[in-house]
Every structure is written in structure tokens, then in C-alpha cells.
Amino acid sequence: MEQGASNYSFLIMMALIFGVFYFIVIMPAKKQQKKKEQMIADLKKGDRILTTGGIFATVASVEDHSLLVKISENVKIRVAKNAVAGQVTGDGVPPIE
After folding, report:
1. Domain spans in the chain, listed from the N-terminal domain onward
2. Can you point out the beta strands (E) in 14-74?
3. How far are the Cα atoms of 6, 9, 24 from residue 53, in angstroms, in the given order?
4. What HEC string does 59-86 produce?
5. How far is CA 35 from CA 17, 26, 47, 85, in A?
6. Beta carbons within 8 Å of 77's beta carbon, 6+ residues apart
7. Global pTM?
8. For residues 72 and 88, what is the distance between their CA atoms, to the nearest angstrom?
């Protein structure tokens, strides 16, 4: 009889540990991923971005899976949308002319 009760308490403990892990780790990561995907979907011409490679750029055009970005005067490169680390706001980085 004690063996059955021990198994149930173990299962309950494992379920509680999984629940805590879900709310502390998995749920915030999913929320952050959705926020990044929305930010990338909302990019438009003229937005300033930072790539995962550390390049500051201005979006010149948006395509299906990539962006054409201006990194300097007369210098444009194509980067994958998933290479965008974030959108740059504020006066921290001077605009590209």
C-alpha cells in the first residue's frame, strides 16, 4: 500500500516541477520569440536595425525572407530577416546618410 502512495507522490512532484519550469522558462521564451517575430514583420523602409553580426543599418527594402539594408553611402547588402537582432531607436546611433 505504501508503494502505491509513493508512486503517486512522485508523479505529483514531477508534475509540479514541470509546471514551475514551464512558467519560469518556457512561457517567457515563447513570449519573447513572438515579440521578435512581430518586430521583424513590422519592419519597413527607413527603419534602423542592428544585425546579429553587429552591423547597424537602415532598411532600404523588405522582401519575403530578406532585407536590403544600407550600411553606408552607396553600400547596400542583403541580410536574412532572422539575422535582425533588434530595431534601433533613440539617438544612440547616428543615422546613415
Report:
1. 1-42, 44-97
2. 48-51, 56-62, 66-72
3. 52, 49, 29
4. EEEECCCEEEEEEECCEEEEEEHHHEEE
5. 27, 14, 17, 12
6. 57, 68, 69, 71
7. 0.70
8. 16
Residue 48 near residue 84 (C-beta atoms within 8 A): no
Q: pLDDT (tens digit, 0 to 9) for every residue of the chain, 97 residues total?
A: 466 677 888 899 999 999 999 999 999 999 999 999 999 999 999 999 999 999 999 999 999 999 999 999 899 999 999 999 999 887 655 555 5
Q: Which residue has the cell 514541470?
A: 18
Dihedral angle sign, alpha carbons of residues 39, 44, 50, 51? positive
3-state DSSP assignment of residue 89: coil
Q: For 44-97, which CATH class?
A: mainly beta
Instruction: Please list the residues that pair with 67 across neighbouring strands.
Output: 62, 79
Q: Are 58 and 95 in contact (CB under 8 A)?
A: yes
CA proximity to 86, closest of 27, 42, 45: 42
